[in-house]
Amino acid sequence: MTQDVRFGWLGKSRREALQTLLAGLVEDWARNWWIGSAEGAIEVHANATDLNRDPGPMHWVSTGDAGTLAIYSGGKDFDAIGRFLVGANPTTDADTDLARGLGEDALLDLSSRVQRRAGVTKTVKLCEERAPLSVEHARLGAFRVTAMVGRWSLDLAIDRNLADRLVPPPAIARQPGLVHRQDAVQNAPLRVTAVMDFGSVDLAHLSDLGVGEVLVGDRKLDEPLQIHLQGHGAIAAGFLRRAGEKRAVMLDGHT
């Protein structure tokens, strides 16, 4: 079901990094298990084609919390894999059992190497089943390599989750997070006005005012000024003071 998988191709740089990483793991694994590794060639390359989902071939699949890995052994069962690795054909039932056990251990070790590299401490065993969609299509973030171990060809495919564990995506620059409203507006400039309530005078005193005349109101000198904030009206009371060459107001209380 495609609703359970994530869509998204891996970028070129990450595909190249995954190929290099998986190639190193497969080559080290083959040299440890294949008797012909001293003379035979081991080649690993990226494979952009989808995994084969025909009714015939099955895959060895390991699925855990870190992601899914699938190995297609080219139609070889554990017995055939074991015989290839040791370069001999079993002649007795005991030899056949030994080859089968060797093939199973070798394939499980390959899976474990990939999972350990992804940070998985407890590896998940392989099960023979159909590979899930998450490791089948590149459009779902799957990545696949084909390894040629001598004349044996096997495919190794991983899903996007496992790819992200093996080669994490580049860190994305974090966008500034939301801040408290007070922090966001505290540096906004606002106009502050100190208003002196002059009081009332007779209209007759205003009709013939001239330059130099003194207008006297009915408010006392010790009465506070009203401090007005732009857009909010009076917010406090205070008294006029002087700070050097500038006007200042000493607050007396909130309104």
TrEMBL record:
This is Flagellar motor switch protein FliN-like C-terminal domain-containing protein. Pfam families: FliMN_C. It comes from the Bacteria. InterPro entries: FliN-like_C, SpoA-like_sf. Residues 184-252 form the Flagellar motor switch protein FliN-like C-terminal domain.
